[in-house]
Specification:
Pathway: Cell wall biogenesis; peptidoglycan biosynthesis. Its main location: cytoplasm. The modification 2-(S-cysteinyl)pyruvic acid O-phosphothioketal is found at residue 117. Keywords: Cell cycle, Cell division, Cell shape, Cell wall biogenesis/degradation, Cytoplasm, Peptidoglycan synthesis, Pyruvate, Transferase. Helices cover 30% and strands 25% of the residues. Mean pLDDT is 96; it is low at 116-121. The protein starts with a strand and ends with a strand. The protein has helices spanning 22-31, 48-60, 86-89, 99-106, 125-133, 166-177, 192-203, 237-249, 265-273, 311-319, 338-344, 373-383, 396-399, 405-411; strands spanning 2-7, 13-17, 39-42, 63-68, 71-75, 83-84, 108-112, 137-141, 144-148, 158-160, 182-186, 207-209, 215-219, 231-232, 253-257, 277-280, 284-288, 297-299, 324-328, 348-352, 355-359, 367-369, 389-393, 415-420.
């Protein structure tokens, strides 16, 4: 086991390059199942979750070849199994993204019920109900989703999601691409990662309209496989926001590059509320120190609102702000597990159901334990200003979604080291 050791109190400066978005890359990797050609995906982040999904495809029989650390060639014509087994799926919830493509292509599949971050129930019921509307027969048997399509393939349908689901939207988009007839998705997710998936399909000849809105219409190919063009993964807006939080809590000037400012609207707006200003160019954002870090109020919601995946990092910044901040977590019922660890660092946080009230004060170093991916980055951010040396344990959570976090922070001037547990 490894941990990160952080000496607090160091100002940051310089420029950091943002990696490709993990949450955009995962559905694109799953999309390769629908390709009749070799699919090349570039700007892949070198993180554990990506490797997990690639391993899952290999276990199904796909052939993969890394052309460099951030570019892979995938051929799924050799897939000889449609069973995604528990030993891999349990590691990551996003593994469920193979369900729609496998069912659409092969007419049957078995996918283990997923694992991943323990931040709420996050059931896959919406995925399954949508597939049933497309004619699939679904059973839950021995911990697996067992799905069978009608004899002539899935059929187009009008599907209204009861609540917004990102992976659910992505799963059904991919299933609909090979369906018979036209599928209409109402109350679809419109995150940039969903848009990127839709654009990849459109570039491959699939008729799809409403991209970027909450109503999508997809005309299926009647099981004809796709000639998918090479894809470059969009920048990671959550990684970008995380480094901006590192700059904000230390009140430093840094530049993030190879980012997409248009994807960061709600995040940048909240920083402006807290007193920060920005210099924005095409793919670069420079955050400038604030005269005073103000408290703020945050409500997490679906895109284009404030992302739940930035809630923990902003809570860390709020711990160093002047005054009282309020964070209302509307999307997940159990996403305040980092609070107990921030309290160990001297934070003043009070919880009431889905609301956290944070009174800004100085933090002190402590041994803390990561509980999920974004919580782990929040603890690192807090450690940047805590007096003394903080140790963040269980950083395997961090490695699921951040590429070289400690190296990038070190390049900005942070004193942070990865070490092995005794």
């Amino acid at each position: 086991m490894e941990y990160l050791e952080i000496v607090g109190g160091k100002k940051l400066s310089g420029e950091v390059v943002i990696s490709g978005a993990k949450n955009a890359a995962l559905p694109l990797i799953a999309l390769s199942i629908l390709a009749k050609n070799d699919l090349v995906i570039s700007n892949l982040p070198n993180v554990v979750d990506i490797k997990t999904l690639i391993k899952l495809l290999e276990n199904l029989g796909a052939k993969t070849e890394f052309l460099d650390n951030h570019c892979i060639k995938i051929n799924t014509n050799s897939i000889n199994s449609t069973k995604a087994t528990y030993d891999i799926v349990r590691k990551m919830r996003a593994s469920i993204l193979v369900l729609g493509p496998l069912l659409a292509k092969f007419g049957k599949c078995e996918v283990s019920l997923p694992g991943g971050c323990a931040i709420g129930a996050r059931p896959i019921d919406l995925h399954l109900l949508a597939l049933e509307k497309m004619g699939a027969k679904i059973e839950i048997k021995d911990g697996y989703v067992v799905a069978t399509a009608p004899k002539y393939g899935l059929k187009g349908a009008t599907i209204t999601f009861d609540k917004i689901t990102v992976t659910g939207t992505e799963n059904i988009i991919m299933a609909a691409a090979l369906a018979n007839g036209t599928t209409k998705l109402i109350n679809a997710a419109k995150e940039p990662e969903v848009v990127a998936l839709c654009q990849a399909l459109k570039n491959s000849g699939v008729e799809i309209s409403g991209i970027g809105s909450d109503e999508l219409t997809i005309k299926g190919t009647k099981k004809d496989l796709l000639n998918i063009k090479n894809i470059e993964v969009i920048p990671d807006r959550i990684e970008a926001g995380t480094y901006l939080c590192a700059a904000a809590i230390t009140n430093s000037k840094i530049t993030i590059s190879k980012c997409e400012p248009n994807h960061l609207g709600a995040i940048l707006s909240k920083f402006e509320d807290m007193g920060f200003k920005f210099e924005i160019k095409k793919d670069k954002i420079t955050i400038l120190p604030a005269e005073k870090i103000n408290s703020t109020e945050i409500i997490t919601t679906e895109y284009p609102g404030f992302p739940t995946d930035m809630q923990a990092q902003f809570m860390a910044v709020c711990c160093a702000a002047n005054g009282t901040s309020i964070i209302d977590e509307r999307l997940f019922e159990n996403r305040f597990m980092h609070v107990a660890e921030l309290l160990r660092m001297g934070a003043d946080i009070k919880l009431s159901t889905h609301t956290a009230t944070i009174n800004g004060k100085s933090l002190s170093a402590a041994d803390v334990m990561a509980t999920d991916l974004r919580a782990s980055s929040a603890l690192v951010i807090a450690g940047l200003v805590a007096k003394g040396t903080t140790k963040v344990h269980r950083i395997y959570h961090l490695d699921r979604g951040y590429e070289g976090l400690e190296k990038k922070l070190s390049s900005l001037g942070a004193k942070i080291t990865r070490k092995k547990e005794d």
